[in-house]
Amino acid sequence: MNGTADGRGNASQASLREVNLALIATTAFAAPEPRSRAELAQRTALSRATVSRLVDELVRGEVLAEQERSTAGARGRPAVPLVPSPARFVALGLQVNTSRLTARVVDLTGATVAQHSQAGDLVGSDPAEVLGELGSIASRLMARLPRHQRLAGAGLALPGIVSTPSGRLLRAPNLGWAEVDAAEHLRTALGPVRLQVGNEADLAALSVARARPGVPGANRDFIYVSGEIGIGGAAVRDGAVLRGSHGWAGEIGHVCVDPNGPACRCGANGCLESFAGRRVLLAGAGLPPDGSPHDVLARAGAGDPGTLAALERAADALGTAVSSAVHLLDLPAVVLGGDLAVIGPLIRDRVEGVLARRVISNPWAAVDIVIGSGDPSDAATGAALAELERVVANPAAYLS
């Protein structure tokens, strides 16, 4: 009896196909250099015939693409390197923070193929109005995509505590939002496109942890700290964001660095962001609230005492908060994003000094401080990458 009379054999074959397609796709995407069918067979321990058949399916479905054949120094049939295909699958990354809205379309190579960013002061804004505008931006962007491209999904990054299973924003102190069903506000604009909602810092950290979908970045273990009006954070271990029991881990901006410090928008006192947030730095530099971190750089370059003192306070607070995170998590690096990447070169030495004094393991393993891209919309990229990694992890669900 072959086990197919009740359909179980066919189901088992289909399941095996899905598993093997995922194995081939993840192995091909993660390769530092393009691999041929023969190399994929060697890496996956699947037969060459099986690999060739599955690769053909992934190439037809435009998950993978064949590079020009390499014949140098080879006999017989030349090897065909396989790379991610930019042709068909893309994902939409959306981001709301206190000073801008961003929509960004990313393909399977990690390239941004379309984007729109709109600046504005969104502190104390109405979530329905803001998300309605973001939906309009997303609709216009999707309408301009070539007809052959397929939107694999959409991700939304929000600067606050997000209930990951439901996608509900529970609280965003700096926006002044609470209990917002973001997906509901975007449903009309996105139509049938699946939307995943996540924390802004978690998704920005993913953009650092990946070079492109499925490919590890240069840093795989780090604490991510990003500056804007608030301070966002995430912890990354072996390329995965540590989310905690409820998905709320990494809120380093609300780590207390001085119990007697200034009041924070969250309701506590002495949080990191009350020393290193954008408006605190601008006020210390004698600049208006709508200024930028580049204005702070200019004042510091001119030797303004107030600006230099504000930067020293920010560096001390950042070093104190990061040292606590290092003691708890034993991660070897801190990546500075957003505003902190912009001012990073000015504060790095002082932060390193604080870490040297406060981190007990520093004599044997000093914490590396990495200056990130400074792109204020990194989380939009991360949101798109998270959706594209679903294609890589389960290509069978997208092939038709």
Automatic annotation (TrEMBL):
Organism per entry: Amycolatopsis antarctica
UniProt-recorded name of the protein: Sugar kinase
Superkingdom in the source lineage: Bacteria
Coiled-coil stretches noted in the UniProt entry, renumbered to this chain: none
Family designation: Belongs to the ROK (NagC/XylR) family.
